[in-house]
Amino acid sequence: MKAALGVIAAVLVLTSGCARQDWIDRTLVTVSVTGTWSGTMTGASGGAVVLLELQQQGAKVTGVINMPAYGTSFSGRVDGNVAGDVFTFKDDRGAYSGELTVAGDDMVRQIYGPQGKRGTSLRREGSAS
Question: How far apart are CA 58 and CA 69, in angstroms?
Fold first, then answer.
């Protein structure tokens, strides 16, 4: 009986430690995305220009996305979050969302939209090349 209680106690201690670490990883903000970002989103008809103007307060991010020449031009407000080095967002109309990994003045990964998932590479404007 004591052995069973010991095993149960050990499992509870270990799993609570894991849950705490996951919580920390999800809420830790290690990068800033504030600024103007520009780059390209790949597609079947070549690349499209993407512009993001972002303001970050803690983990919360707000801003604007512009795609001036992607089919018909698109512009909308975005809301998102930063967790670790990953910036995720959705536009206010639900047309586009993104999951981008931030490394200094570069963001890469994907934006999802009406045409599907597209590889994306952005650079913060005003940064040294």
Answer: 32
pTM: 0.76
**Cα gap 18→29, rounded to integer Å:** 19
Question: In this structure, are 9 and 57 located in the same domain?
Answer: no
Three-state DSSP at 16 gives helix
Q: How many CB atoms lie within 10 A of CB 35?
A: 16
For the ranges 23-32, 71-80, 95-104, the one whose mean pLDDT is highest: 95-104
Long-range contacts of 94-98 (CB under 8 A, 24+ apart): 96/65
Q: How many residues does the chain have?
A: 129
3-state secondary structure of 6: helix
The number of distinct structural domains making up the chain is 2
**For residue 22, what are the domain limits?**
1-28
